[in-house]
Amino acid sequence: MKRPTSAAERAANIAAVMVSLSPVRPAVLIVLVIVLGWLAGCATSPQLVPVKVSVPVECRVDKPQRPAMPFSDAPAPAAALDSHVAAMLAEIELRDGYELQLVAALETCTAPLPSAPP
After folding, report:
1. Residue ranges per domain, the chain?
2. Could you tell me the pTM of the whole model?
């Protein structure tokens, strides 16, 4: 068999093959369309979409030191009533200051994080 030399002869040979495969042609076309669809899907580059998700962040606040309480830590049983009252009032002041430090640490840990600029 002689090799076709011109484009017209090659096109005629391809057309003859397609006509001879006419009963198979719909199935071949379906498979060809599916394969070309897969290839076209692989050829497109994926689009990157930014996703904003809250990320838990460890709270790094130092725990305040508990002060020594003058009445609770070392009560003097033989002391006078005035010294007991003075120790209790001093302890109230110390506890208020300690409570303020604890609340400040808690607020620092629970405060919302500043949002990043877009």
Report:
1. 8-43, 61-112
2. 0.46
